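TL;DR need structure tokens for one chain.
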Amino acid sequence: MPADRQAGSLRSDTIPILMKKTKDNDQMALAGTAEAEILGKLSERVEKAIGTIQELRREREQLRKKIEELEAQVRSQDELGEEHERFRKERDEIRDRIEGILESLEALETE
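>> reply
TL;DR here they are.
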């Protein structure tokens, strides 16, 4: 081992390296604290996002059910509308027949 590297002997050019290492360790400890804080905040945001996503999924499911109900109502009303139209045509046809019969009766009476 070289003489300048023997135990207890430090060269002047190694002191800045040791100081830098200590500074790096302090910064790493601070960075570790900052990282922990950042990770904690990130974790909170992720948990909040997960909660929001779950709520939005529940809401989406409720809205899908509501859409299905409304579509069923529209189909029912369409069917009722079609039935109403069919009854209206049938009524008009019956009215036309009755008017025709009445005209025939009036023609028989006037003869």
